[in-house]
Specification:
3-stranded antiparallel beta sheet, Jelly Rolls, about 140 residues, 10 strands, isomerase, 5-stranded antiparallel beta sheet
Length: about 140
């Protein structure tokens, strides 16, 4: 499992597809001025279905691989910058994602991510500049 990741000052839109395997894919709205802030959408992506999920800028992204393996394809609106990465813990109680697993295999980085409440307190100075809700840190 990975996530829930986002970029702080250079938010990315991502078109996500799975070439082979099966993945439970999630996008969480982190736009403070949004009526759906903190809510998520999820979809089962698979190479057999050949379906996709668009994760807009201002959303966190996470996924859980359900098959033995999975190959992904991402088309991003901006470059990945590891120094700009932020994240929300996968099992945040305020978001309450209905993950299809209860004991996922997580990276050290993902285990240490913050909660949505901590995110709101830490980043309450976010400003939104245009209709695509790109956000910038003060």
């Amino acid at each position: 499992m990975r996530g829930l990741h986002f970029q702080k000052t250079k938010p990315q839109g991502k078109l996500v597809s799975v070439i082979s395997g099966e993945v439970y894919d999630v996008a969480v709205d982190l736009r403070h001025d949004s009526e759906t802030f903190g809510q998520y959408v999820s979809v089962l992506l698979s190479g057999k279905k050949n379906n996709q999920l668009y994760v807009p800028p201002g959303f966190a992204h996470g996924f859980c691989v359900l098959s033995e393996y999975a190959d992904f394809h991402y088309k991003c609106t901006d470059f990945y910058d590891p120094k700009d990465e932020g994240g929300i813990i996968w099992n945040d109680p305020d978001i309450a994602i209905d993950w299809p697993v209860t004991e996922p295999l997580l990276s050290e980085k993902d285990i240490k991510l913050i909660t949505l409440a901590e995110y709101k307190n830490l980043y309450e100075s976010i400003l939104y500049s245009d209709r695509w809700t790109w956000f910038h840190w003060q």
